[in-house]
Amino acid sequence: MTQLFRAMRLYGHITILLLTATVLGIAAYWASIFLPNIHHDYSIFSLIVPALTLLLLLVGLQWSTPRTEAVFLFILGVLWLAEAAWTTDIIGSTQCDSLGLQQVITKSGSIAAKSWCYEMRVVQAFSWMIFCLYAIFLWILISLTARAKVFGRPFAWSEPIIELPWFGQLPGYPEGGQYPPGMYPNGYGYPGGMPMSMGMQPMGVYGGGAQVAPGYVVQQTPGHSVVIQPGMNGQPTTVTQIPGTVSSA
Question: Residue 47 and residue 59: Cα distance in Å, rounded?
Answer without folding.
Answer: 19
